[in-house]
Amino acid sequence: MPVIALLYKKSKKEQFMPRPVKCRKVCHFPNVLEFFPTGDYEKKTPIVLTVDEYETIRLLDKKGYSQEQCAESMQIARTTVQRIYEIARKKIADALIDGHPLRIEGGDFRICDGQGSNCNLGGCYKQELYQKYAVEKGESIMRIAVTYENGQIFQHFGHTETFKIYDVEEGKVVHSEVVDTNGSGHGALAGVLNALNADVLICGGIGGGAQIALAAAGIKLFGGVSGDADKAVEAFINETLDYNPDVKCSHHEHSHGEGHTCGEHGCGSHSCH
User: Fold this and answer.
1) CATH code of 215's domain
2) Is residue 79 in some structural domain?
3) What is the pLDDT of residues 89-141, one digit of tens each?
4) What are the CA-CA distances from residue 226 to residues 20, 184, 233, 245 (Å)?
5) 33 and 105 Cβ atoms separated by less than 8 Å
6) Strands (E), 36-161
7) Strand order in the sheet with 34-35
8) Is residue 53 part of a domain?
9) Is residue 78 part of a domain?
10) What is the domain extent for residue 197?
């Protein structure tokens, strides 16, 4: 075979190798992960809407973004937005018209931490937090965040208005301060903690969706804790913190399925780049 032919010949593996999937940036994790029709719905197969598909619905239909703005926010191509959006609309139509349960989980996505220069098209509170807190944090620092109100651990994660963050080095708190969440609700709070570069969250009740979002951001959760915030952090440092690994939030009646994100099932191990 001529040399020039060898140079341009592709193996079958190269010819049919799928393009790497680019993780889609999600700024707001869904507050509600499951929707059920009334009646005998248990016999019908649930339709699964991925988190990145949900984000296109939120940005295009709820916030009124153009496809170009949506693409900029999610940091993907406009054609990709169009394709994801069409799939999402079809799934929602099938659920509504045919009476299927709808569940939101999985997908190729990453939780926004405010690093992007075009984060939320400018004016993003997470971007402000990232610039202040993530850059300042040293490698030897473990940052603990606590849902906080008047010195106590606030008991409903999704409604917390402030976090108290503690920087711990060599088993001692070297710095602490109270940070406003700027009115961020359930779905955005994991992003706020990610922008704060928190390693650990101590809180009271927390819903399944928020737990999945925290896992996506790589933040370890210690829920079901009450009482004085400073003492809880001290107990955590001393490995004596009393917490509930199966914590639930009383505001969320349904259990939620496990989601897969770029951190654990997408970018990390599913060729999502």
Assistant:
1) 3.30.420.130
2) no
3) 999 999 999 999 999 988 888 777 666 555 555 455 556 666 666 556 677 89
4) 44, 22, 11, 14
5) yes
6) 47-49, 102-104, 109-111, 142-149, 152-153
7) 34-35, 102-104, 47-49
8) no
9) no
10) 131-237
